[in-house]
Amino acid sequence: MKGLPEERAVKLAQYIIEQDATVRQAAKKFVISKSTVHKDVTKRLQQMNPQLWEQVKKVLEHNKQERHIRGGLATKEKYEILRQNKLQKSVDESLKQ
Predict the structure, then answer these.
(1) Which of 68, 62, 60 has its CA nearest to residue 23?
(2) This prediction's pTM
(3) Hey, CA dihedral for 11, 13, 14, 18, is it positive or negative?
(4) End-to-end CA distance of the chain
(5) E strands of 1-97, at which residues?
(6) What distance in Å separates the CA atoms of residue 23 and residue 36, rounded to the nearest whole number?
(7) Torsion angle, CA of 42/12/68/75, rounded to 10 degrees?
(8) Helix (H, G, I), strand (E, B) or coil at 38
(9) Could you point out which of 41, 53, 58, 81 has its C-alpha 20 to 30 Å from the C-alpha of 26?
């Protein structure tokens, strides 16, 4: 997403608030880096629109408090997939014999 950083900061903030999105999700949606999203919604937005910044800050703090839970769930899912693949391989091998 090209354009003025000020406009981008407001659009990012609105997206994060409306979607309860993480910095990573916003970066992916707008095809920009996570550091750009973070800089826009913290530094730029704080100076331009303190009220909007307060709303974004609440969402980001909430996401930060939950990140360990999301990380644990992702790890759990990863190992469940690996276990399923291993089981499927052993089933396939036994059918070949």
Answers:
(1) 60
(2) 0.69
(3) positive
(4) 55
(5) none
(6) 9
(7) -140
(8) helix
(9) 81
DSSP, res 20: T
User: Which secondary structure element, helix H or strand E, spans residue 79, and what is its range?
Assistant: helix 50-96
- For 51, the token pair is 């009220």
Residue 2 · residue 36 · CB < 8 Å: no
d(CA 13, CA 42): 9
| pLDDT tens for each residue of the chain, 97 residues long | 556 888 999 999 999 999 999 999 999 999 999 999 999 999 999 999 999 999 999 999 998 888 788 888 889 999 999 999 988 888 777 777 7
Q: DSSP secondary-structure letter at 53?
A: H
Alpha-carbon distance of 10 to 31, in angstroms, equals: 16
